[in-house]
Amino acid sequence: MRPQQLADTLKDLIKIKRTVTITGAPGGGKTSIVRDVTKSLGIAYVEQHMPTMLVEDFGVPDMMGTGHSFGYKMPDWFPDARNPDTPKAGVLCFDDRNQASADLQKVLANICQARTLHGVPMPDGWTVVNTGNRQNDRAGANRVLSHLADRETELPLDTHLDDWCGWALNNGIRPELVSFIRFRPNLLHDFDPQREKNSTPRSWVEGVNNLIDKIPKESEYECFKGAVGEGAAAEFMGFLKIFRKLPNPDAVLMNPDTSDVPTDPATLYALSGALAQRATESNFERVCRYVERMPAEFSVLSVSIAVKRDPELCNTGAFNNWVVKHNDVLF
């Protein structure tokens, strides 16, 4: 299931309080999607990392009480319906639930089904959402107990180029990385459990995007290789050199009708992204004039990235004129 479809489906399942588990290869953005969905719904979010939890983290007997019986000391993270400070609606996310031991899975199964922990209920507006890798990913996933699996809806997450690029543009990911992934889409999530390092959406963002211009240039390749692997890092470094040698996009837009148009595909991808990043309502007419001189697919790419980054560009005359020329293209 592509990320946007999964996010839309998850919103509906949360509203009807159906327990969901999102599965997929490591680094695909499973937990990030859950966080983003809860933020968009305006509800609370609590996340627990199952591989680092003990059974005792779910509550311990309270032997200090008086009387003939005892209860439990409840964990502070559990959304306790008895507590007036607990938000009325939210998501309780158990991350990497496939790596949990059988004992923890039994506790989780009860929370999913009875919506209680040691008899203490969650508020009516709370839902359980789990995430996990698959056993064939060799990421430490255990077999899921059958009665737990029977109490949840499992949704697979598949990486999708357009969805990731849309997310990247809305979250400040650098244009050179977005342009490179457009140029080499197979490297967005090239996961092989036999390799020591893989390129994934997470490793591109945390291990590459967040390091650009933050570390010495002579160290970039080694650092990128340590995040996404040797082959992906080498290709990105080659693309990055092209990106850094591009003519200043502002200078290109000063003379959109006469500035040189490159012919190399990698350079065209890089320039398309750079121009899209520079596009504003005041200069979009010049952007469109220049990209119209590019091969058609790069004109479409540049304009589509620009309007996804800034939807207000769709209200310009330049965009309307461009659409008339490309009304047979959907992006």
Write the layout of secondary structure elements.
Blueprint: H1 3-15, E1 20-23, H2 30-41, E2 44-49, E3 60-62, E4 71-73, E5 89-95, H3 102-114, E6 116-117, E7 120-121, E8 125-132, H4 146-149, E9 153-156, H5 161-170, H6 175-183, H7 201-207, H8 220-228, H9 230-244, H10 249-254, H11 265-278, H12 284-291, H13 296-309, H14 317-325
Parallel strand pairs: 1-8, 1-9, 2-5, 5-8
Antiparallel strand pairs: 3-4, 6-7
Helix pairs in contact: 1-2, 5-6, 6-11, 7-8, 8-9, 11-13, 12-14
Explain this structure.
This protein has two domains: 3-156, Rossmann fold (3-Layer(aba) Sandwich); 161-198 and 243-325, no CATH class. The protein contains 14 helices and nine strands. It starts with a helix and ends in a 6-residue tail after the last helix. The strands form three sheets. The chain has a five-stranded parallel beta sheet with strand order 2-5-8-1-9, covered by helices on one side. A two-stranded antiparallel ribbon has the order 3-4. It has 331 residues and is α/β, with parallel strands linked by helices. α7 (201-207) runs antiparallel to α8 (220-228) and α12 (284-291) packs parallel to α14 (317-325). The longest helix has 15 residues, at 230-244. β3 and β4 form a beta hairpin. It is elongated and about 90 Å long. It has helices spanning 3-15, 30-41, 102-114, 146-149, 161-170, 175-183, 201-207, 220-228, 230-244, 249-254, 265-278, 284-291, 296-309, 317-325, and strands at residues 20-23, 44-49, 60-62, 71-73, 89-95, 116-117, 120-121, 125-132, 153-156.
